[in-house]
Structure formats: structure tokens, C-alpha cells
Amino acid sequence: MAFFVLDQIIDGKYQIVRMLGQGGMGTVYEAKHTETARRVALKVIAGGLVNNSADTAARFKREAKAAGAIETQHVIQVLDAGSDPITQDPYIVMELLKGEDLKQLVQRVGPIAPELSLRIVGQACVGLQVAHDAGIIHRDIKSANLFLAHRETEEIVVKIVDFGIAKIVEEHAAAAGDKANLTSTGSLVGSPRYVSPEQAKGTRDVGVRSDLWSLGVVLYELLTGTTPHAEIDSVFMIMTAICSTPAPPVQDRAPWVPAEIAELTHKLLEIEPAKRFASAAATLKAIRALLPGGLAIDAGMIGPLPTGVRGSVVPSASSRSTRTGAEGQGDSGTALNLITRSRTSPTRSRRWSAALVLAAVAGGALSTYGLSRRADQPYEAIATTVSPSSPEEQHARLLVEPADVTVEIDGHPVSVKDGAVDLSGVIGSVRHVRVTKGTGETRLDVAITALGLVPPIVKLEAAPPATAPGPPTAVPVRPLPAPRSAPPSAPRSALPSARPDEPRAPQPATKFE
Q1: Catalytic residue among 84, 89, 140, 211, which?
Q2: Catalytic (active site) residue 140
Q3: Rg of the chain on CA atoms, in Å
Q4: Global pTM value
Q5: Tell me, what's the pLDDT at 377?
């Protein structure tokens, strides 16, 4: 493979601007189309990975066209493909992205917040499902191939890159009898630490669940800062471990990760393909059950774990199983579940007692992850931001609706700005909030937890209908009910598959089968 220099023209239409990166698959350049001046990413495939015959070139273009036909914002857009007439090296042209890939993110900040990790993997599932529906298997899902693309706004979109190329190289390597390409680091069919057991064994049965395994490795890496078998250096030993040894428990390396998220990760990493999720859509549905706030990511969420999270410990999956029963998949009683349910329904959240919230906090300290509300998000689907100032005290923003209400906290008037008020207090404390406007009034106890406020929003109840003039009547304050015991565990059932675009009702935490 030849290296191109500044201002060199490739295939008569792409002018090289600069080199962006280089790897085992080839070299990526920023280039400019000579006619339209559009900036693009031009990837030149390493000459040793595909031969230069006319048949290979034609097949390369067909596969690139198939990858370009995947219509979703979560897969990088393929614009063109061809071969340079001088070097004979095949190339593929893609949209030019601004941001960083997940490998760079983990190297920069280490493990990231569990909720952010789920949002990233959830968006990747959307892209994978669209591709799988089109009959295309990626075969090289890894942290370096998942890109956090910054939009003009603060929104960040996860994009899968290098789609379709893996299949070309794998088939070429098999036809040529080149087994080295199947296991060498940086090869197009997958980096050793991310390949599925099926790929490691060299079988032809590489399908949807193989991509899900690799996505599970990425999720494991985001949660813990390392891949499951990172301590092994030998390629042969890595392959052996992947095929025979389950990944070390997530919570052994990251004890702050909620049990439900750890269980989801390990289901993706089942050695036996049939035990994994059946599809990216089924994986996405399980993720959405743990993310009532949705999959949206903004720039403010990207960063290292919040202060103090690394030192926290949440109940492990084993202790959770003890509470819910070996066959149970109902409410686990963890802080994540309690807060998830209270976010899901503001009407229900008003019925939560302070004692129940405090019990959730006592179950294990969790952290907030800098969530914010988009213009198109309903208030019910967001979580408040908590910024730790000390191990004892937290500061948070409580949303109120409508924005022009009068608010009292513990009997003292507070100012309302942009539809929110400031709340401070130690984790586990409860603040008494009174919201009024005209004759309407809402009184509510709001708990300060390590994951945010419960509930995160207080809405003004409608004023009673106008009646004939008479003496004023005091507005009754509804007492909070006593804590209720968790409902009995639901019977075991397989997780149903779902299309990414189907509407979903909020789900309780699920024991993954």
C-alpha cells in the first residue's frame, strides 16, 4: 500500500488534506472532493488485505455500496468507493466525523458512568439492527470502531464505522488460505480481544450474535476501563480464554456498577451463542428497560466517573439473586430500580414514601451522570443533575412545572430560574417542597439521593373548579403512605425481540435469561 502526500489527487477526484490515522486495515486521510470541495474521510485499504484483481475490485465496490445503503444515523455514511489507478489500492470514502472513538475516550478518562455506557451501547444497537436487517454482519465491532460524533448542537451521536469491509477481507483471507489474517492484531476480521468465540474458532457460523458478543466486550470496557482478558498478551492464549473462560465479573473490577447492568453485560458475553440476546433489537429493549430517560447523549455527559463513585459499592448480582429468588425477574429492591420506577411515572412518584427512598439509598450509593433535557424530551423522562461538593452534601436542580410557579422549600421561599430551583442536602435527606400558583397548590417530599432527586420534578396540581363565594377552605395535604413491599417475582420468560423504532412502555428491571 502506497502512502499519499499532501495535495496528491486520488482517482482524479479526491485531494489529500492530511493523514488522520493508520492501523492494520489501512490508512485514513482527510480529503477534499475536487469538484464539490466537500471534506471527506478517505480510507485506503492495506494492499495485503485484498488482491488487486478486477474481480476483487468489483466485489469491493459492491460490498461498499451495500454498506452505504444502511440508512441510519448510527452507521457512518459511505459516499464512494474505488481504486487508485496509479497504486491500485482500493479506497472507500466516508463522511468526515468530528469527535473521538470509544478507545480514545477510555484511554483519556478511564471507565465511564454506567448510564452513559448504556446510552452509547444502546445507540450502537440501533445501528446494528438496521445493518443486520439488511443482511450485513460487521465482524469487527470494537471500541475503536464506535465513534462519538459531535453535532452542531451539544448532541452526540454514536456511529459504527468500517461496516462492510470486514466481510470482504475475511472472505478473501479464507479463499487465499491466509489464516494469519483471522487472528492477527488489527486485522479486518476483528482484533483478538473483541472477537467472538465463533470467530476465534475459525468457524463459518459468524452471525448476528457474534456482533453482539463484540458489543458486550465494548460495554465491559466502558464500565471497567479494560477488556475482559486484558491481562493476557499472547494471541493464542487470548483466543483460548475467549472460547473457554467466562469474562471476570464486571462488579469485581467496577463495584459501582449496578447488578442489572452487570448482568446485561455478561449475557452479551455468554460463550454459547444461543445464550446471548437473539438480536440487537432484543438487546436494545433490555437496555431501554434500564434507561427511562432514553438514549440521548450530550457533550456534558462525556467525562470521567464523578467524584466518589469509584469508592462506592452497590449490591452484587449474587446478593440480588438471593433477594429475588433464583427464578425471579421482578423488582430487585436496588436503588437503581426504585429510582428508575419513580422517574417513569410522575404520578406514581408522588406516592413514594421518604422511608422507601431512604432504603434505596442505603442499598448502595450510585451516581448521577450529568443528564440534561432536550427540547423534545418530556419532563417525565429526565433525571436531575447532582454535582458533589463533598461526601456529605449534594447540590441538585429540581424541575417545576409550570415555570412561573411560586416555590417554598421547608417553608422558605426560593427563586425559580428557567423552570427549576436549587436543592442542597446530604444524601438521604428529604426536603419539603410546596408549589403554588393562584389557588393551585402541590406539596411533595423530595429525597436527595446519590442518583438524583426523587422525584426529579414537581408539577402544580390543577386548581379546583370555581365555586360560589364563601369562606376559604384549607387545601388538604395528602399523607404519604407507608412503604409497600415489592410485588412477587414474575415468572421467568424470554426477552422478546423488538424493533428499535417501536414505542416502548417503561419496563421494570429484568433478570436476563
Answers
A1: 140
A2: yes
A3: 26
A4: 0.60
A5: 37
